[in-house]
Structures are given as structure tokens and as C-alpha cells.
Specification:
About 10% of the residues have low confidence. The protein has about 120 residues and is of the alpha+beta class. The radius of gyration is 18 Å and the shape is elongated. The protein contains 1 helix and 8 strands, in the order αββββββββ.
């Protein structure tokens, strides 16, 4: 009985450590915050990336989604199926957008500067 409690306690602590590490990786990300960007018609809107992995937008077409950092790039997956990337290029950031089903290593549908507020 004691060994079962020890195993369960160890598993719980290990699971908790993994959760804390994942949350900490979002919190430490340079991408967490509000980003000023523009759409394909040069109209400004904002993208907010939260420490918990949620993404929201003030743009009508893509209001909610999730995001994660992959190799120094914020990859946002919107509920519409579209994907947005925020990438650091030199001393500034760029937002690229990909239509649903388009490979993320192909040409983007839209590109603009991304400025963290």
C-alpha cells in the first residue's frame, strides 16, 4: 500500500512539474503581449498572445485561436483554420498569414510589420 502511495505521489509531482514548466515557457516568451499589425488592405488591428496559449484578435475574420512558440517563431492557429506567424527579422518583427490548408513554408497570403505595444 505504501509503495502505491509513493508511486502516485511521485507521478503527481512529476506531472505538476511538467505543467509548471510549460506555463513558465509561455510566460517567459517575448511574444506574450499585444501586437499591432495590418491586414491585406493595410487596415490596422491587434493580436493579443496570452501566457496561457490563447490568442485573440480585433480583426473581424479571426477573433480567437491558440498559439505556441516554435523555434523562436510565434505560430497562431485561428478557429477559422488560418495561421499567423510573428517572426523576428533583424531588429524588428514581421507578421505573415497563411490561408487554411496552405503549407507554412510556402508564400504567405499577407505580410506586415508587427510592433509589440
Amino acid at each position: 500500500m505504501k509503495s502505491i502511495r509513493t508511486i502516485l505521489s511521485t507521478a503527481f509531482i512529476a506531472g505538476l512539474a511538467i505543467v509548471i514548466a510549460n506555463v513558465a515557457s509561455f510566460a517567459a516568451s517575448e511574444f506574450v503581449g499585444v501586437w499591432a499589425v495590418k491586414d491585406s488592405k493595410d487596415r490596422p488591428f491587434e493580436i493579443t498572445l496570452s501566457a496561457d496559449g490563447k490568442a485573440t484578435s480585433t480583426q473581424e475574420k479571426a477573433k480567437e485561436g491558440t498559439w505556441k512558440e516554435e523555434s523562436g517563431v510565434a505560430v497562431i492557429t485561428w478557429t477559422t483554420g488560418w495561421t499567423t506567424k510573428i517572426i523576428k527579422e533583424g531588429d524588428h518583427y514581421i507578421k505573415t498569414v497563411y490561408k487554411k490548408g496552405v503549407p507554412l513554408d510556402g508564400p504567405p497570403s499577407n505580410k506586415s510589420d508587427a510592433v509589440k505595444k
